[in-house]
Hints:
This protein is α+β, with helices and mostly antiparallel strands. The chain is 19% helix and 11% strand. The chain has two helices and four strands; from the N terminus they run ββαβαβ. The protein has a two-stranded antiparallel sheet with strand order 1-2. It is globular, with a radius of gyration of 15 Å.
Amino acid sequence: MSYYPVLVNKTHLLPFDYIPDDLEEAGIPFCAPPGSEKRLLRRKASKAAGRLFTQAALDKMGIIGISGYRSYKRQEELYLDALRRKSSAVAPPGASEHQTGFALEGQRTYHRIPLGALAYPLCRRTSGLISFHDRADFGRISQFIEDNFLFSG
Length: 153
């Protein structure tokens, strides 16, 4: 297993011009059209996501990707929107793990989606954010359960 030491939080910010050099479109069902920045992950994370989604399909659990990589600019837009809504659930720009290309949010769906299928038309018919047991073989898995959110950043 490779180790990628990255410390990103509100006191250890990424520079505004940081863009990982190995971003690739994750080959998983996604709630975003092809070519969207949201579909990008670092190569290592993309491979782990593929294994995770394959295992989920074998377990008859339909899941789709919601958000992967975010640029500094996109994180800033989300953060400013959260401030307008008086929410503290979004990390400031430079402080989000999504900017590293290692973070992926997913959502469970009751529809069976073949791996590699175009999933974004199903996004409005889904059931809440995914909840996985901690699976170290896929990387760190945070649990997000509808109406019981855990946030990082």
